[in-house]
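In this supplementary section we document a worked example of the pipeline. Step one takes a protein sequence of length 118 as its only input; no multiple sequence alignment statistics are reported here. Step two produces a three-dimensional model, which step three serialises into structure tokens for compact storage. The input and output of this example are shown verbatim.
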Amino acid sequence: QVQLVESGGGLVQPGGSLKLSCAASGLTFSNFHMRWYRQAPGKERELVARITIAGGSTNYADPVKGRFTISRDNAKNTVYLQMNSLKPEDTAVYYCSALSTFSGRDYWGQGTQVTVSS
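The serialised model returned by step three reads:
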């Protein structure tokens, strides 16, 4: 079955960096657009960044533009989120999502906690 496993979260000081990874299995990774979402306590889940199937196009939410970079390695079935200049408001559970270009079905990982605090 399809599995998405996020890793790389943790506690970091403001201004620091983290790189999240999401390893996919059970699917043809190159047929899926990939997205990173986040959900902070008491808030709705929000889209952070997305990347198309071949990585030719990326989009970012305004709060993270210029600080976060999404990338993918189709040979490794992995999508990444490089997060720089982290702020306390970036604290959230980060989820990766795979969107099928054929069926429109969406798959989700279990999430990884990112905490930005001094």
